[in-house]
Amino acid sequence: MKINKMSEYKNEYLEIETPPEISNAIMTGIERGKKKMTRNNNSRSKVLKVCASMVLATSILTGAINVSPTFAEILKNIPIIGEIVKVLQFTDGEAEGGIITDGTDISGIEIVEEETFEEIVIEFSNDGENQDTVGAYKVTQAEYPSTITFEIGGARRFTAMEDFKKLNDSQYVKDIYPLITLDDSMIRFVVVFNTAVNCEITELKSPASLVMRISEKELSDQQDMYIVRTESMQNGETFGIQEEEFAREYDTRILKDDNGWFIIELNTYDSKEAAEAFIAEYSVSSDKKLIVEKRSEKETPKHYPSVLN
Prior knowledge:
7 helices; five-stranded antiparallel beta sheet; alpha+beta
């Protein structure tokens, strides 16, 4: 978001006339947002906090848009908010969206903290200007530990890595890091959570952004799981090639271990016997070494160095 535009966007936001068909909850939120905007300066973080917490409450907002074309048109014309494209629906832990683009810069990451949830806003640009639509992407959810992996197609720059430190104060985010990708037109990164979370992701356009709403998930009768994984390897081309080989046959996940090296996960089982049976069958046709790791939901993969390093 261009800083010199923030005052203009603020004024547009304050001039919203709430349509009568919007529910009392939406009207109250917008009016509260207006009051806060008049009290606060127009710094980037405060503007995002007001707009994200008051307007990007997607579970309520999506319903308002469906019943009020007037309200949808208002939001579409305010660049700081953008237009909701869709709320992602996950199938087997995966969801996709965006359109094919090239030259994308994943240009910024902002965090909005509330008492019971957080919103992480991922921003996109191209040639230094706000990008209108998000490039083709895939998002994958997984557990043990709870993670979200982003794959952004057509992306050539990752300026947002400079913003990773902003997530240090998050009550949910344990780590965030990029993954090596042999495709030079794709950027991938992983968000690791320190507990099991509920995660809702909304795609917006004009300007392009992904908004990830996170809240803690209640777990009952949690049990340890048995992960079939590779030994730990240092990040680099050798690791990238090995990942591509495994990914041809399995739905792999890449994670950083507790020593800063990387591993490839192939499968997850609820018993050690099932995991060892998989490795025995796999070893008949391959000499690549796999191991079984017992892990709780909150644990980081342990460091088992590979002899290839």
